[in-house]
Amino acid sequence: MFYQFILIDKNVKGDLWMSTTREYKKLEEITVEDLMIPSEKVAHVMLNNPLEHALLVLTRSGYFAVPVLDPENKLVGTISKTVILDQILGIEGYEVEKLSHLLVSDVMEKDVPSITKTASFIDGLKSVIDEPFVSVVDEEGYFEGILTRRAILKQVKREYYQNQYRG
Ligand code: AMP
After folding, report:
1. Which of 9, 15, 33, 109 is the most buried (most CB within 10 A)?
2. Ligand 1: does its nearest atom lie under 6 Å from the Cβ of 154?
3. Ligand 1 near 36 CB (within 6 A)
4. Probe ligand 1: pick from 58, 63, 155, max atoms within 8 Å of CB?
5. Distance between CA 140 and CA 24 in Å, rounded?
C-alpha cells in the first residue's frame, strides 16, 4: 500500500514555514484542513472598515484579494484591489477622498464560495479551479482559514513525483 508523504508547509509570501506536523497520508485521505492556511495567518478586513484600510491591507500584503469578516468573525465576502480601484474611479480620474467615505460593506463581493475543513482533497481542488483561494468556514459560517490554489498545486506536484519514484 502506497502512502503519500505530506510535509505540511505553507508558503506565506515567500517565507517558507513548516508546521511541526508530519504525517503519512494517502491522497484520498487528505482533507482541506491538511492544506489550509489557518485564520491567524490570513490577512483579512472587517465589514465596517473604510476602503482606505482595505486598500492599505491589500497593498501592504501584496494580495489580490482578502476575506471580509463580520464582528463575530463570520465570513461575509471578499474584497479585491480591482473592486476598490473601480469604485473610486470617476470621470476625471481617481477620487481618492471616496476611500474614507465608503466602507468595505459597500463594495465587497458578497457571493463568495466557501468550503469546510473536512472536505476532501478533490473537493478542495474543484473549489479553486475558478478562484485563487476559497475561504474555509465551519458549519455556522465562522471563518477558519483559506485554501489556496497554490497549496493544491503543490500537493499535486508532490503526488506526481511520488508516483515517479514508485514507478
Ligand atoms: P497564492 O496561491 O499563495 O498566490 O494565493 C492566492 C491568493 O490567496 C492571494 O492572491 C490572496 O488573495 C490569497 N491569500 C494567500 N495567502 C493569504 C494570506 N496569508 N492572507 C490573506 N490572503 C491570502
Report:
1. 33
2. no
3. no
4. 63
5. 30
Q: Does the pLDDT of residue 46 top 50, yes or no?
A: yes
37 lines ligand 1 (CB under 6 A): yes
Confidence band, pLDDT 50/70/90 cuts, at residue 167: low
Atom of ligand 1 nearest to the CA of 42: 20
User: What's the CA gap between 110 and 10, in Å, rounded?
Assistant: 27
What are residue 101's phi and psi, to 5 degrees? -90, -35
Which residues lie below 8 Å from residue 17, measured CB to CB, with a gap of 6+?
A: 9, 10
In the chain the domains, ranked by start, together with CATH numbers, are 4-166 (3.10.580.10)
Residue 72, CA atoms < 13 Å, CB-side half-sphere = 8
